[in-house]
Amino acid sequence: MVGIAMTLIVFCSSAFSPAYGQTLSELESQVGDIFSQSCARVGCHAGSDPQMGLSLEADLFVDHTVQSDSRERPDLQLAHPGEPDSSYLVKKVRGDEDIIGGPMPMTGNPLSDSEIETIASWIQALGETDLSDRATPSAAKTVNAFSGWKVVNLPTTRMVDARTWLFLIGHRFNPQLSAGYDAFWGLDGSGIIFLSMGYAPSNDLLISLGRSNLEDNVELETKIRLLNQTQDGRIPLSLALRGAVNWITEQTGEEDRWQSESFKVSGQAVLSRELSRNLGVLVAPGLLVNQDAREDGEGLLVTVGVGGRWRFHRNLSLVAEWVPILTGYMRSVSFGNVNRFDSFGGGLEIAVGGHVFQIVATNSVGLATDQYMRGGDLDVGRGDFRLGFNIYRLLRF
């Protein structure tokens, strides 16, 4: 009787196992459905710039996971055929103690036990299959040195998937952090806001239109990516070109907002490189024509911005930038403040899929391109900063 009971138990557990009686292709189809519902979303593991260079879209997840080393744990394969318990993909969705960062998916509901078991069953079935004739992935996996589309003010090389919108809210509080409790460390004072909406006609082109209440500054921006760094090192860095036209629509006195002096033109070449999984750097030389709408005959302003990002815990990073003016500086005023110093900024970045939130401290009051390139009004050498934030959101209709 005991033997019969044990046989029944083994039979029942096998009968209800996701792998029971299923072919590898059937399991792959189920795993693809699981990833499509929970992981292959805009800003996560889908599109041209998936997180960690890992696409889990239905037609790509096999090539991106099977016998592929994890970027977080290079000593482990994402999907090690026949060994689900040592596959990093299974560890990540289970939330094992030895993973780096947080469990997946990072947003939404965690996978159910049956969904995790289906993934494990698929990896187990891979070990019973000859994988030698599988096609080699045609596209190299890419990396992003930065999670956000700006370091603080400087643009990064990160793009947006085709037919996707990018919404940005940027805010800077005018009073200094040193204002103390009476001004609630600057949070009670006046503020400058920048609203922008961008659209990507293709994976490598982003067109944005924004406006700042500082000088009623309207900005039309175009960014095109020419190179995208790959994990295999064949393309060692990312390169994007960015151009902007700023229109000062604020009228003072009898000045015409349509006069040529109200328009400014700028260009930047942005080069970035991910040095390691947690460290990215950037350099962005830039030119600004007609830096001050209220002056005539000013020279060309030349800057070289540098920035960096260090991820120190899961989805948390520190970001920082410096935009020194090389030549063409002239005295200008932003929101009643005289710009006398190079722009500096830094802060904490929280990245969750298509959401990026930055809490920043900066010496520049401006957010539009022509504003921060002209410098800041606070002396960081004396510890003078103001607080602010950037919020990014990917949208797809």
Report on this structure:
With 397 residues, the chain is α+β, with helices and mostly antiparallel strands. 15% of the residues lie in helices and 34% in strands. It has helices spanning 2-15, 24-38, 61-65, 88-94, 113-126, 369-372, and strands at 165-173, 191-202, 205-212, 217-227, 238-248, 263-276, 279-289, 301-313, 316-323, 325-327, 332-334, 337-339, 343-352, 355-362, 386-395. Strands 1-2-3-4-5-6-7-8-9-13-14-15 form a twelve-stranded antiparallel beta barrel. Strands 11-12 form a two-stranded antiparallel ribbon. Strand 2 and strand 3 (205-212) form a beta hairpin. It is elongated, with a radius of gyration of 25 Å.
Write the layout of secondary structure elements.
Blueprint: H1 2-15, H2 24-38, H3 61-65, H4 88-94, H5 113-126, E1 165-173, E2 191-202, E3 205-212, E4 217-227, E5 238-248, E6 263-276, E7 279-289, E8 301-313, E9 316-323, E10 325-327, E11 332-334, E12 337-339, E13 343-352, E14 355-362, H6 369-372, E15 386-395
Antiparallel strand pairs: 1-2, 1-15, 2-3, 3-4, 4-5, 5-6, 6-7, 7-8, 8-9, 8-10, 9-13, 11-12, 13-14, 14-15
Helix pairs in contact: 2-5
End-to-end Cα distance: 61 Å
Total number of beta strands: 15
User: Secondary-structure element sequence?
Assistant: HHHHHEEEEEEEEEEEEEEHE
User: Compute the gyration radius: what is it?
Assistant: 25 Å
Which overall shape is indicated by the principal axes computed on the Cα atoms?
A: elongated
Biggest sheet character: 12 strands, antiparallel, barrel
How do the strands line up in the largest sheet?
1-2-3-4-5-6-7-8-9-13-14-15
Low-confidence stretches: 2-18
